[in-house]
Design goal:
Protein name: ANTAR domain-containing protein
Order of helices and strands: HHHHHHHHHHHEEHHHH
InterPro entries: ANTAR, CheY-like_superfamily, Nitrate/nitrite_sensing, WH-like_DNA-bd_sf
Distance between the termini: 73 Å
GO molecular function: RNA binding
Radius of gyration: 27 Å
Shape: globular
Structural class: mainly alpha
Strand content: under 5%
Mean pLDDT: 76
Helix content: over 70%
Number of domains: 2
Pfam family, one: ANTAR
Low-confidence stretches: 309-350
Largest sheet: 2 strands, antiparallel
């Protein structure tokens, strides 16, 4: 008695069902990414208010600080509600182990914020220490977003995620610029190291926003251009910061002006970020709709395709084989199927294969860009760990090496990682 196996049509149906399931997972990831971006924005607000609170020795922004703390708590609750449930067995959830690890690290960082908040309120931290604490929490949330970007499998969704991640990076650097500038203006002057930090943050923002423009949709780019054109006051204050070398008696007033101008800019950036979140969700739903539109392949669809091709000339599908001497083409037969039905099914399989291959090609290019970023980040960590550099110093070192050698930064990073033993092996 012959064994009955699933048909090719059954496997094609299963392929589409899996595709839809993966897209629904991406839709959930998109919702989580959106809420994480809101949480990061609220933390950026609290970090900014904390800067003014500390720099004014507790005389400014008391109410604002409390309001920011409440907003962070509400946003955090929404993020927690969207986290994936823990799988009962290994294959219950399509997310990678790295994503669950990133969630765990982000949750641990969020658990530390109450202590940080109390220390800020009690003025037990310097401006730099408070900024470092907030930066750590935000960095872990950004890593969580990065893992969601890295696990996306639909090219359109991947583009939306990469655009959003790149923009979130630039916006976070803008928040750090607000904090550094607030400290400088409050002190009444910008020493050389603070000016250099400002310039580095401005330069890094430009790189992130440039990367964002390569992946964003046209409507978001229009929104971005309108925001970018309204930054004249920020540019004026930046020039003052870069030339203010002696103490200014109006430091407090200038610090408040700087904070307000940069806050308006960051609020403007948030409108672009919200537009990116909308585009991301729209792209997720569109991909699901397209996949469902291609969904089930039933007898009716088969019959319709047979009628459409009834008048077409006969043809064969060929594949290349090798007989030990020369490659040659052989016809692929649809054994057990009527000629028209065989052509219909093979056409569907070919269309599905071509579409998946196109997706793979586009994803490969995107993942290559993400992998370059990982290499550079690993090289930065290497320099920070073994040379005692700050993150900005490590970046500037890699950048100078790349310019001096006329090479890409990722090539310099890869070379450093390849000889990492030179940094870790003790001298004999």
């Amino acid at each position: 008695m012959s064994t009955q196996y699933p048909s090719a049509l059954a496997f094609l149906r299963a392929s589409r069902q899996q595709e839809i399931a993966a897209l629904r997972h991406l839709l959930n990831s998109g919702r989580l990414t959106t809420e994480v971006s809101h949480l990061i924005h609220e933390l950026q607000r609290e970090r900014g208010a904390s800067n003014i609170w500390i720099c004014s020795a507790g005389e400014e922004f008391s109410d604002e600080l409390s309001r920011c703390g409440r907003q962070v708590a509400r946003s955090q609750e929404r993020v927690m509600a969207l986290l994936p449930s823990l799988p009962e067995v290994a294959n219950d959830w399509p997310a990678s182990s790295r994503l669950f690890s990133a969630i765990a690290i982000a949750m641990q960082a969020l658990n530390e914020q109450e202590v940080l908040r109390q220390q800020v309120r009690a003025l037990q931290l310097t401006h730099t220490q408070a900024m470092t604490g907030f930066n750590h929490i935000i960095r872990q949330l950004m890593h969580l977003v990065f893992e969601m970007v890295d696990t996306a499998s639909d090219p359109g969704v991947s583009r939306a995620l990469i655009a959003m991640y790149s923009f979130m990076q630039g916006k976070e650097l803008a928040g750090q610029e607000r904090a550094v500038g607030s400290a400088g203006f409050a002190a009444g002057h910008f020493p050389p190291e603070l000016r250099q930090q400002m310039l580095s943050l401005i330069d890094a923002q430009e790189r992130c926003f440039s990367n964002f423009t390569q992946f964003a949709d046209d409507e978001t780019l229009q929104c971005w251009q309108s925001v970018a054109q309204s930054e004249s006051d920020v540019e004026r204050l930046r020039r003052i910061a870069c030339t203010l070398t002696r103490p200014d008696e109006q430091g407090a007033a200038m610090a408040l002006r700087w904070y307000q101008s940069l806050s308006r800019r960051i609020d403007g950036l948030k409108t672009v970020e919200d537009r990116l979140a909308h585009a991301l969700m729209q792209r997720c739903r569109q991909s699901i709709s397209e996949a469902e539109g291609r969904g089930d392949i039933g007898p009716a669809e088969m019959q319709q395709q047979m009628k459409q091709r009834a008048e077409e000339p006969s043809w064969s599908v060929f594949f290349t084989s090798y007989d030990g001497q020369q490659p040659h083409a052989e016809p692929l037969q649809a054994d057990g199927l009527a000629p028209q039905l065989g052509r219909s099914l093979l056409t569907l399989v070919q269309q599905q294969s071509r579409r998946l291959q196109d997706q793979d090609d586009e994803l490969a290019a995107m993942r290559a860009s993400i992998e370059d970023r990982k290499q550079i980040d690993r090289a930065k960590v290497l320099l920070m760990r073994h040379q005692g550099y700050s993150e900005d110093q490590a970046w500037q070192t890699l950048r100078k090496m790349a310019m001096d050698q006329n090479k890409r930064m990722v090539d310099i990073a890869s070379a450093l990682l390849a000889v990492a033993s030179a940094f870790t092996t003790p001298a004999q």
